Structures are given as structure tokens and as C-alpha cells.
Amino acid sequence: MSGIALFDLTWTWPTAHGTFEILYPWVFALVPLPLVAWRALPAYRERFAALHVPFFDRLARATGQVPTPGSVVLPRGVFERICMAIVWLLVVLAVARPQWVEPPIERIESGRDLLLALDLSQSMEEKDFPDQGGRRSERLAAAKQVLGEFVARRRGDRLGLVVFGNAAYVEAPFTLDHALVRAQIDAARPGIAGPRTAIGDAIGLAIKLFAEQQTKHKVVILLTDGNDTASRMPPEQAAAIAGSRGIVVHTVGMGDPAARGQDKVDVPALKAIAAKTGGRFFLGSDQRALAAIYTELDALEKQDFQTLSWRPKNPLYQWPLGAAVLLLLALHAASATSAVVRRRRRDA
Questions:
Q1: 210 touches 248 (CB < 8 A)
Q2: Quick check: 264 and 117 in contact, CB under 8 A?
Q3: How far is CA 263 from CA 174, 244, 255, 290, in A?
Q4: Cα(57)–Cα(59) distance, integer angstroms
Q5: For residue 321, what is the enclosing H or E element?
Q6: What is the rounded distance in angstroms from the CA atom of residue 177 to the CA atom of residue 305?
Q7: What is the tens place of the pLDDT at every residue in 105-157?
Q8: Residue burial 234-254, b: 16+ Cβ < 10 Å; e: rest
Q9: C-alpha to C-alpha distance for 180 and 326, rounded to whole angstroms
Q10: What's the pLDDT tens digit per position in 1-29?
Q11: pTM for the whole thing?
Q12: Which of 36, 83, 111, 262 satisfies CB 3.0 to 4.6 Å to 304 for a cystine?
């Protein structure tokens, strides 16, 4: 056994509420050290000034006294020996570093950043999108319901929310607080970001947000009902930059691609964005199809997270060390009190 392995040995006693540990059990090998020192080392000697008497032997015979050796070993009582042994054991226990290890605290750390980009242009207030029952409902209301269900299923991911109209805005930075993301989605209103659609700027803002993250999986799910009418950066150029930085953009179009005007879903542009980033394009003609798309995305972008475990460790060495100091002080106080009592009795 190597020296390192020997000194890394730890004694543990698991319980229902934690674990008691001795970090350095080899320190207990020092327990017999005082006994060895008492047997091997000479007694402590202290020199005093004395008067030399040439006729000491005759004086001793005249007084009837028997001379004794010059050194005297003061005897220790049984109680004092027991107390000193306990003090030494407590000191050794403190040096052995006892500690209490609490049950593990687990934290989930996501390996994926998932950014939701939601179109809030004025056209999202149109009430022409079939809901689950086939009735015409507001486009944004249908999108919010589907997105809310999607967020509820992504428990292990860091989610962010970007909304875009005339420009793109961060509504929620990357966070594990999914309740916040859902609240921001529920609070979204058509037109609050402007009446037009800036898809390219939304992708550009996503690139900026991802530049501050260190995760290996970076995904954008962009939902829109129209085509780009307000971006300062063309969507395909923004998609090319995103693809070069490892950002996958899935595009989801909702509505009728056969419609006319600016409200028409630009299917070719959305397909090109997805293709340049390694993502996929989806088209939802009603709420049921839209829900199926996000279910497929949920399966496509599987959650990637790891569970980190940490066990708080509370050192306990201060308790035996404190007990040793208190016992030593009590022993000295008792010895001093006993000496005073004996002196008073002798003087009485």
C-alpha cells in the first residue's frame, strides 16, 4: 500500500440523516504516545539554590533524620491521570478531523440552450386560425397555447424568449425559471413590437445571446405567420452566420402559404433559413397541426442535462478540542483550589 493511499483512508459511519466521517484515522496511532514518553523519557528536573553544610551527616544523625535523594517525583492522583488521558484522547480526535456529511443536494445543469423566437407582428391578431375544435381563433392565442405546453415539457433546458415585430427584443434571457418564460409568453400581445416582421433581426439577436453561452447545443425555434418586411439584416445572411457558429434554427410557419400580400407565409425563405443552419422547416395550417409540430420538435431536440450532486460537509473538530480545553482548565482550577485549602488547613 502506498503512503498516499494510506493517508487518504477515511472512516465513515452512514446514518439515515447523513454520514459521520473521520478524515485522518491514522492519527489515532498517536494515542499511546504519552505512555511511551512517560516510560522512555527521564523525569523533569528543576534546580534550586541550596546552602552547603559541611557537617550535614552529623546534623542528620543528631536530629534522627534519614537523608533522601535530591530529586523528588511528585505523584499524580488517579483522578488527575484519568482527566489527562481524556484530554489527550480529545485532542487526538480533533486532529483526526471528524466531520458530518449531510445528504446530497442535487442540481440539474442543462447542456442545451433553447431559444423561442415568437412573431408579434400585427398580423398575429387575425382570427382566422382553426383551433382544436375547428373554430376560427386568434393566431397568437393558438401559438401561445402550443408554446406553453412545449415549455412545460422542457424541464431540463435553459429557455429564452425573443419576440419580434419591427425589431427584435429579449423578453426572457436563458433561464431554468420556466414559469417566467411562460408568464412572458402569456403576456405577449400582437403589435407590441411593431406591425411589421423582422425575422433576420430576430436571428441576429439570437446569435448575440448565444455568444454569451458556453453550452454545446444551441437551438432556435422561430415561429412566424408572415414574411420578412423590416429586417436590417437579410434572414438568409443571418442564418448563414448562425450556422457557422453552430446554432440550429428550426422554422415554423403558421397560416396559409397561398394567401396574398405581406401576411403570406414565406415558405421558401423559412426553408432556406432552416437548411443553412441544419434545422428543419414545419408548416402548421391549424392548431392541431401546430401542436403536432412542437411535439415532433420535442422529440427531435431531446433534453440534454446532467445532475450535479453536492454534499455539505460540516467540520466537528472544534467540539472535542473545546471539550479538551475546558477539561484542562477545570483540572487546573481544581488543583489550585485544593492547594489553597490544604494551605489554610496547615496554617490553621
A1: no
A2: no
A3: 30, 30, 9, 18
A4: 5
A5: helix 318-347
A6: 15
A7: 766 665 678 999 999 999 899 888 888 877 889 999 999 999 999 999 887 78
A8: ebbebbeebbeeebbbbbbbb
A9: 54
A10: 334 444 558 889 898 888 999 999 999 99
A11: 0.61
A12: 111
Q: At what angle do helices 199-210 and 267-277 cross, to 10 degrees?
A: 20
* DSSP assigned state of 102: P
- C-alpha 271/C-alpha 254 separation (Å) is 13
Report the distance separating Cα 208 and Cα 202, nearest Å: 10
Q: Which domains does the chain have, with CATH numbers?
A: 3-103+312-347 (no CATH), 108-308 (3.40.50.410)
Torsion of CA 57, 60, 61, 62, to 10 degrees: 120
Residue 329 to residues 84, 94, 211, 325, Cα–Cα distance (Å): 11, 18, 63, 6
Q: For residue 139, how many other CB atoms are within 10 A of its CB?
A: 26
- For residue 34, give the amino acid letter: P
190 contacts 121 by C-beta, under 8 angstroms = yes
Identity of residue 46 = E
Helix (H) or strand (E) holding 284: strand 281-284
CA-based angle 131:133:136, to the nearest 5? 45
Please give the C-alpha separations between residue 259 and each of 90, 224, 285, 313, in angstroms, as whole numbers. 86, 14, 12, 65
